[in-house]
Amino acid sequence: MVNDSQADTVDRGDELPDEFPPSDQPPPLDVLLIDASALNRSCFSAGIDHDGSIRLVACAAIDQIPPAAFARGMPDIVILRLIAEEIAEADVADRLQRLDELFPGAAIILIIPTAEPRHILTALQHEILGLTTDQLSMASTIEVMRLVHAGMVVYPPMLFESLRTVGTADENMGAGSVRSGINKLTKRQYEVLRLLAGGMPNKAIAQELGISDSTVKVHIRAIMERLGLVNRTQAAARFLRSQF
Fold first, then answer.
1. pTM greater than 0.70 (yes/no)
2. Residue 28 and residue 53 in contact, taking contact as beta carbons nearer than 8 Å
3. Taking the mean position of all CA atoms in its chain, how far away is CA 214?
4. Hey, what CATH topology would domain 161-241 get?
């Protein structure tokens, strides 16, 4: 609500400057939370209220998304929180597909009770940018939102730790022993893909394998072309599909 003096200032358009200095603050993030738990929605909203950089709309299910979610256009971020019973229904992939169709421009974050490999794989297959668990604090969850909105991929550390121990390019591994199209890769390309899927940047991959950054880029380009991929998230998903 504006007071009388504020209203006067607005009405006297001739006294307003032609241009206002740009604000140093970025616009608030518009976030849609889908969570079946009313208690959790309330707690989430309370936590967000302390952060003025986020505007939250919450609902219980995809079929109950309110018009307010579209009040300022598409939300920047859509958060889908699933409880154990919902995960047991084995419709996680269907829900993610529906969110992709409803909010094609939004970054999607999936919150689950525990980060099991099968759920990580499903999220990767749908190119979900963020995957977290209920154990994450509110402050950390807000940070995940900011990172995902910036275009970064945020997944549980356990994923990367497990990938580093999976099939470390066995000396006896023949090209035909690797599934899901990975058999198209050379042994060195497989090593690069494994580390890439484990979250390593190019420089770290180069150090791990004792090769140059430029050679890593050449290998990644070849991997993308051979497997018909366009980004690192797809590469991680393809590698995981070959392991489970």
1. no
2. yes
3. 27
4. Arc Repressor Mutant, subunit A (1.10.10)
